[in-house]
């Protein structure tokens, strides 16, 4: 059979997106052209590859088998292209980074400042959303690298490199610090208004696991998406918030926030870089990873 690489690539992109129209948009060709190419491929193979539905398309059993092989081929071509790009200089390029707003502000920004001074022509794109969504986008090839609170979702597909140890704690304003004496047991903690991040967040998952390990299920007074908003609410006296010591060091130094030790002590955790095991990062991304992992 004389089937072109373009036909297989169109099939691959449509299968990933689950939609003819989304596939056409990503490929930047017309929807009729994509539909025609899929019909032609099915005709050449003598098989039905997609089931059409009102919501889009899904792979048939035959389509799934073909997709597994095509995926390996596309990834091999992409890896080859990225390796060739590695030979080029850093005069241009783009790094697409996924991270939470909090990690972007407190962890990523100092590295990006250094990186931008060294390589001012490299464009940086940052996507802030839920961890699960970021991992989905990484798997689809829409992001190059994630910087996340660990632990994260387990997957054979993902390469995780811890880069920073952080220590979670509880924090209050001066009044709550004086009320508590700066130290509480978990049982005593339940008697105070608490402010946690909403599920699902890695930080909240870590807290819930810590509580469960110690035989506690605590319902907070408030649940907020934004970590920074939690700290703002704590400062004005809404309650005691769950915080990361390294992220509030300036507020602690200025005595806008006060650390409240909880017994038993919270274990440390890590911030890490997440990439795909089966994909070679482009040269720009490799340089940023090297900077963040302090590798020569």
Question: Could you please describe the fold and organization of this structure?
Answer:
With 296 residues, the chain is an alpha/beta fold. The chain is built from 12 helices and 13 strands. The protein is elongated.
Q: Runs with pLDDT <50, length 5+?
A: none
Q: Percent range for helical residues?
A: 40-55%
Say how many strands there are: 13
Shape: elongated
Total of helices = 12
- CA radius of gyration: 24 Å
Q: Note the main sheet.
A: 6 strands, mixed
The average pLDDT is: 91
Class from helix and strand fractions: alpha/beta
The largest sheet has its strands arranged as 8-12-7-11-9-10
Termini separation comes to: 48 Å
Question: Element order, helices and strands?
Answer: HHHEEHEHEHEEEHEHEHEHEHEEH
Beta-strand percent range:
15-25%
List the SSEs and their pairings:
Layout: H1 5-17, H2 20-27, H3 31-45, E1 50-53, E2 56-59, H4 61-85, E3 94-99, H5 101-118, E4 123-127, H6 131-140, E5 145-149, E6 158-166, E7 168-172, H7 174-180, E8 183-185, H8 186-189, E9 194-197, H9 202-213, E10 222-224, H10 227-235, E11 240-244, H11 249-253, E12 258-263, E13 269-276, H12 283-292
Parallel strand pairs: 3-4, 3-5, 8-12, 9-10, 9-11
Antiparallel strand pairs: 1-2, 5-13, 6-13, 7-11, 7-12
Helix pairs in contact: 1-2, 1-3, 1-4, 2-3
């Amino acid at each position: 059979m004389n089937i072109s690489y373009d036909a297989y690539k169109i099939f691959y992109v449509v299968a990933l997106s689950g939609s003819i129209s989304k596939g056409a948009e990503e490929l930047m060709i017309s929807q009729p052209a994509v539909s025609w190419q899929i019909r032609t491929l099915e005709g050449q193979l003598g098989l039905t590859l997609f089931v059409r539905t009102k919501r889009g398309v899904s792979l048939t059993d035959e389509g799934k088998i073909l997709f597994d092989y095509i995926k390996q081929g596309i990834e091999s071509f992409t890896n080859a292209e990225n390796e060739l790009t590695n030979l080029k200089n850093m005069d241009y390029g783009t790094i697409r980074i996924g991270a939470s707003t909090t990690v972007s502000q407190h962890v990523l920004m100092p590295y990006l400042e250094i990186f931008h001074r060294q390589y001012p022509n490299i464009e940086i794109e940052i996507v802030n959303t839920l961890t699960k969504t970021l991992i989905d986008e990484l798997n689809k090839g829409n992001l190059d690298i994630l910087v996340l609170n660990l632990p994260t979702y387990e997957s054979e597909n993902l390469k995780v490199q811890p880069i920073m140890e952080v220590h979670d704690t509880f924090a209050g304003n001066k009044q709550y610090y004086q009320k508590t004496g700066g130290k509480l047991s978990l049982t005593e903690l339940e008697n105070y208004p608490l402010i946690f991040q909403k599920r699902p967040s890695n930080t909240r998952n870590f807290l819930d696991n810590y509580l469960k390990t110690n035989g506690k299920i605590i319902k907070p007074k408030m649940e907020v998406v934004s970590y920074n908003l939690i700290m703002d609410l704590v400062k004005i006296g809404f309650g005691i918030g769950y915080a990361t010591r390294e992220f509030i060091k300036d507020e602690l130094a200025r005595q806008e926030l006060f650390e409240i030790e909880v017994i038993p002590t919270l274990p440390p955790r890590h911030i890490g870089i997440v990439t795909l095991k089966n994909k070679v990062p482009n040269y720009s991304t490799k340089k940023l990873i090297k900077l963040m992992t302090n590798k020569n």
